[in-house]
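help with these tokens:
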Amino acid sequence: MNSGQGTDTGVVRIVIADDQAMVRAGLRLVVESEPGMEVVGEASDGVEAVAVARRTRPDVVLMDISMPRMDGLAAAGQILGWPDPPKVVMLTTFDTDENLYAALRAGTSGFLLKVSPPEQLVEAVRVVVGGDALLDPAVTTRVIASFAGRHEPAPPPHLAELTPRELEVLRLLARGLTNAEIARELFVGEATVKTHVARVLMKLHLRDRAQAVVFAYESGVVRPGAAVG
């Protein structure tokens, strides 16, 4: 994540990408009314979103899924392929399983409905800037289990690098548990869980918890039907 600018200055830099001017204006109003956040660029389509993000190097991109020229998922895929990319939170009018799964597979950090209240948008930005993923366990585990379960998984080679405890943490992550819940489950401190999660992400070359959940199902670490909301 290109959080250096936001961390160094204390200000979270945000790009808003949506093809509707009124939506962009509303999002800007919400963001800029929050101390410590500023909008550094806007885009009306996916192509422009990539260009604006490349020029401004924000900490977070709020990306509409449905846009002309290039949709938000394709734009997010390009942006997330850069070295040290910003976090991307997908915005949509419809909470469809297909969109959510595609967004998570693309490596985005979250998924937010446009009808979400302003405080939820602000909290979403804070969550992803803090290095976490914006996941609703009840929705996320159901969706990933459904889509990942369509193909027979093949365990990737990196999986063998995990210790038994790290594998256990990955399984609990895939069930949608928070660090605090994992700590209670394993009878360890929350700081210990954070260390295990960081090592899991590093060893598996994953960006965040969202990718870890996808990985767990697609690699067969967790089987469809094993998830709990």
Notes: The chain has two domains: 4-134, 142-218. The mean pLDDT is 83. The longest helix spans residues 190-203. The two ends are 28 Å apart (CA to CA).
